[in-house]
Amino acid sequence: MILTLILIFAAAFVVMEFVAWSNHKYIMHGFLWSLHKDHHLTDIAGKPVLQKNDLFFLIYAIPAIVLIILGFSAGNPYLISAGAGITLYGLTYFIFHDVVYHQRLPLFRNPKNPYVKAIIKAHDAHHRPKDRTDFNNFGLLIFSRRYFN
């Protein structure tokens, strides 16, 4: 049972990268661009400023919270494990995207890790397109190897 719970936890975490990628590409840069646009227009480096884009936090947090509450209520560790995997992805996203890349908290300046540097390069490419149709790198943790160079 422990192995199954670990696999569910890991699967929920990994699946969230693809959920985040597709939501970012087709929803945030699609019909909800009006909520996401301020994230691309506002320079928040070093300034912990709330944006309309921050409402997307709820879109990701609510399912995780519901799974965890239902899991505890029903005594179902599988739901708790899935909710915890989604929650860890959310925390990971917050750390790499909001803290490391956008510097919304004054931590982790000048990272030395090659993977973290590649995340920053990939996200730079996403935030500096030529025009609205030039966006790429919609995910956070999975991206082209060219950003490691």
What do you see in this structure?
The protein has 5 helices and no strands. The chain is an all-alpha fold and 149 residues long. The chain has one domain. Helix 1 (2-31) crosses helix 2 and helix 4 (77-101) packs across helix 5 (114-127). The mean pLDDT is 85.
Question: Uncertain spans, ≥5 residues at pLDDT below 50?
Answer: none
Helix fraction by DSSP (H/I, runs of at least 4): 55-70%
End-to-end separation in angstroms reads 42 Å
**How many domains, in number, for the residues?**
1
Pattern of helices and strands: HHHHH
Number of helices: 5
Tell me the β content.
under 5%
Main pleated sheet: none
Return Rg in Å: 16 Å
Describe what is shown at a glance:
The protein has about 150 residues and is an all-alpha fold. The protein is built from 5 helices and no strands.
Label this structure with key terms.
5 helices, mainly alpha, 149 residues, globular
SSE blueprint and pairings:
Blueprint: H1 2-31, H2 33-41, H3 56-74, H4 77-101, H5 114-127
